[in-house]
Amino acid sequence: MSDVLAVVEHRRGSLRDVSFELVTAGADLVGDTGGDLHLAVIGGDVDAFAEELSLAGVDAIHTVAEGDEFNHDVSVQAVAALSEELDPTYVLMGNTVNGLDYAPAVAERLDLPLVTDAIGLQNDGGLVVTREMYASKVESTVEVDADRAAVTVRPGEWDAAEEPGEPAVEAFSFDLNESLVRSRVTGFEEVGSGDVDIADADVLVSVGRGIEEEENIELVRELADALGATLSSSRPIVDNGWLPKDRQVGQSGKVVTPKFYIAIGISGAVQHVAGMKGAENIVAINTDPDAPIFDIADYGIVGDLFEVVPELIEQFE
Amino acid sequence: MKVLVTVKEVAEVEEDFELDGLRVADQYLDYDLNEWDEYAVEEAVQIAEESDDDVEVVAVTIGPERSEETIRMALAKGVDRAVRVWDDALDGVDLLDVGAKTRLLSAVVEDEDPDLVLTGVQANDDSFGATGVSLASAIDFEWAAVVNALDLDADGGVANVRRELEGGVEELTEVDLPAVLTIQTGINEPRYASLRGIRQAQSKEIKPLALSDLGLDAAAVESDLVLTDVYEPETESAATYFEGDAGEQAAELATVLREKGVGAQ
Q1: Alpha-carbon distance A229 to nearest alpha carbon in chain B (angstroms)
Q2: Torsions phi, psi of A314, nearest 5?
Q3: N or C: which end of chain B has fewer CB within 10 A?
Q4: How far is the alpha carbon of A35 from chain B, nearest alpha carbon, in Å?
Q5: Alpha-carbon distance B192 to B195, whole Å?
């Protein structure tokens, strides 16, 4: 029997998608071992969240009415207290920016082995986690050599649970040690929008690390102009200061759904794909035939962008 | 004030590679300083440069002797000295889990007694992204993960940070010191090492520490995680590929784009 405690996430009044994916992953993990799936909802409008999370497969929802927004000190204490009470076999959390801000501390505090960024979970006698290494170039399986574990799951890998259910909803109270709340969220800011909103574009020509030098960006800009498209980029281009932050597509940048997304010299790291996989048509130009961008591309050119892009510009002049 | 920066030499895998058991075969690996750590090092050096007080920047790594060459690059960029933890007990360990790394680094923190610890958000080899926050919990420091702006108020005992959340949103947070901050790429512009810096780095100390030097034994690096398989993921590409030379590829793509109304004159 394996009981699972899954900790959901919310931000600024809404549950994050990963919360519903955690329900699916948690229900899979409980499987037919006869265990229970518990959810923890910490902070915000916990009653409304609990109602939204009343889904099939969930046995109990524990609400902790403490604060409006995520605070890692509160989350660590709440999850630790809940774990002591429920004694779960596995604690599941999201592999999100906030997940990585509290899950490792939960594991450390409860002395649980931690596996992060899971893309697959198997529970037959012991826990086996599938995860990626070396920038998605290889996959690995990791066996947990312990009775219990903490795991963070990658967003978007499990389907969101939708089917309604009738879990028990219980308010959970514990003694919050205020002296250990040593960080305070003072606000949120949207990353500044310039004159162009890449989320509105029908056609995006997007440039990545393969462009090598700042001055080569001009080549891709020329192509965008020839196609009447908007120029966007992957993270390294913005990190290098070659394009402003509002041009960044991906998990931490903008999520875009254009008619055409033309990825030039972009390998297709999972964080980038999260921001553009909803595009209607995806074109990838890359020298590496094994680049993950080709897995989601509709059209592919395996080739040197410095040869292909000038030819493409010529086609449209 | 003392700033401790954790750094890691990581292997990058070449485009074409082969596996050798549970590892990528050595000849396909290029070793370099972890990308995130470049930014953490730069942030630490900038803190030292901008402070009116004396700030010592110490790098700590867990790695074999080979990694000294990489660590020296951090010294060339302004880190004052380095500590390298290694032990025979670590030789041949396929996967050092977060708990083991935390135990090793905690012992170093106890030795060094820093006021601030900076780490990279993650290492781009095994990508656990967890050591910094786990370490903070173990040494009873406050923390913040995925920091992309830092304004340190050492006298006020607080770090004002921005955390880069998903979807182009940043969280503004006050973090009490002492703290561990995990540093995101893009927070600064890492400098290139100067020739003078490279020369000076030759005489800077990289102190090797074995488990016994840290008051630990082999039990400290026993991992609860066992790497059982490593394989190349199956590619599921359903893409239509355009073949031929660059001109032919471009022409075929242009035809498709025009058919779908892109770039139509």
Answers
A1: 8
A2: -60, -40
A3: C
A4: 23
A5: 9
Task: Give alpha helix (H) positions in B51-176.
Answer: 68-76, 98-112, 131-139
Which of B28, B29, B35, B133 to probe the A interface (max A CBs under 10 A)? Answer: B133
Q: How many residue contacts between A and B have a Cβ separation below 8 Å?
A: 264
Q: What is the DSSP letter of B115?
A: S
Domains defined for chain A, CATH in brackets: 4-180 (3.40.50.620), 203-316 (3.40.50.1220)
Please name which of B79, B71, B75 lies closest in space to residue B33, comparing C-alpha atoms.
B71
Q: Which 8-state DSSP code applies to residue B114?
A: -
Q: How many residues does chain A have?
A: 317
The alpha carbon of A242 is separated from its chain's Cα centroid by a whole number of angstroms, namely 25
Q: For B130-167, what is each residue's pLDDT tens digit? A: 999 999 999 999 999 999 999 999 999 999 999 999 98
Q: Does A225 touch chain B (CB under 8 A)?
A: no
Q: A113 preceded by cis ω (within 30°)?
A: no
Low-confidence ranges of chain B (pLDDT < 50): none
Q: How many CB atoms lie within 10 A of CB A70?
A: 24
Which among A163, A139, A159 has a CA at the least distance from the CA of A28?
A159
AA identity, residue B198? I
Contact between A232 and A173 under an 8 Å Cβ cutoff? The reply is no
Phi, psi of A129 (to 5 degrees): -115, 135
* B18–chain A Cβ distance below 8 A for any pair: no
Extents of the domains making up chain B: 2-221
Structure-token pair, residue A168: 């028990």
C-beta atoms of A133 and B126 within 8 A: yes
Window 124-143 of B: residues touching A by CB (8 A cutoff) are 124-134, 136-138, 142-143
Per-run averaged pLDDT (10 residues), chain A, 317 residues? 95 96 96 90 97 97 96 97 97 98 98 97 90 90 95 96 97 95 94 77 96 96 95 95 93 92 95 93 94 94 97 93
Which token pair is B238?
């359903």
pTM value is 0.92
Q: What is the pLDDT of residues B216-248, one digit of tens each?
A: 999 999 999 999 999 988 777 789 999 999 999
A33 and chain B in contact, CB less than 8 A: no
What is the distance between the alpha carbons of residues B206 and B209, in angstroms, rounded to a whole number? 10
Task: For chain A, give the secondary structure using H, E and C.
Answer: CCCEEEECCEECCEECHHHHHHHHHHHHHHCCCCCCEEEEEECCCHHHHHHHCCECCCCEEEEECCCCCCCHHHHHHHHHHHHHHHCCCEEEEECCCCHHHHHHHHHHHHCCCEEEEECEEEECCCEEEEEEECCCCEEEEEEECCCCEEEEECCCCCCCCCCECCCEEEECCCCCCHHHCCEEEEEEEECCCCCCCHHHCCEEEEECHHHCCHHHHHHHHHHHHHHCCEEEECHHHHHCCCCCHHHEECCCCECCCCCEEEEECCCCCHHHHHHHCCCCEEEEEECCCCCCHHHHCCEEEECCHHHHHHHHHHHCC
Q: Are strands A4-7 and A90-94 parallel, antiparallel or unpaired?
A: parallel
Which token pair is B222? Answer: 């026993």
> Above 0.90 for ipTM, yes or no?
yes
**B45 and A CB contact within 8 Å:** no
